[in-house]
Amino acid sequence: MAGKMDQKTIIVLAVVGSLGVLSAILGFSAEGTKLTSWDVVCYYGQCYYRAKPARGLGVCAAIFLIIAQIIFAVVGGCCGCCNSLAIPSEKNRIIGVVCAVGSWIAAVIAFALFVAGGGGWRAHARRHGPRAHLLRPAP
Fold first, then answer.
1. pLDDT per position as a tens digit, 101-134
2. Greater model confidence, 13 or 50
3. Strands (E), the chain
4. Alpha-carbon Rg for the chain in angstroms
5. Pairing outcome for strands 124-126 and 46-49
6. Which of 53, 74, 90, 107 could potentially form a cystine with 69 if both were Cys, beta carbons 3.0 to 4.6 Å apart?
7. H or E element, residue 47
8. Adjacency order of strands within the sheet including 46-49
9. Residue pLDDT, tens place only, 73-92
10. In sequence order, what are the beta bridge partners of 125?
11. What are residue 49's DSSP bridge partners?
């Protein structure tokens, strides 16, 4: 019985860890493909932004992050409170609940940052006067 539990734990950790690493890689890739001043062309007061993959990468990173978080919560059995065979001690239960809540708060913040960082940039024209709007200057 203990061997099956260890195998299940290893598989879950491998899957969740892989999804987390994939999410981080996609997030860093999205940051690397954001618009720079070289990607903006202005003609007669209209600024044209070229299409970049930052939005798709950011959304994919957010999706993988939420999938990993849900898998971990479902398989973990709500910190040992919901579907646990052994009743945890009060101290372990409180630590588990605090860690789970902290994990969900961090996941929601990361999700919002992935979506906000990747969203909003698409190929289109905007009128901003003589200058185009960018989040960061060119290197």
1. 888 899 999 888 888 776 654 444 444 445 555 5
2. 13
3. 40-43, 46-49, 124-126
4. 21
5. antiparallel
6. 107
7. strand 46-49
8. 40-43, 46-49, 124-126
9. 888 766 555 555 566 677 87
10. 48
11. 40, 124
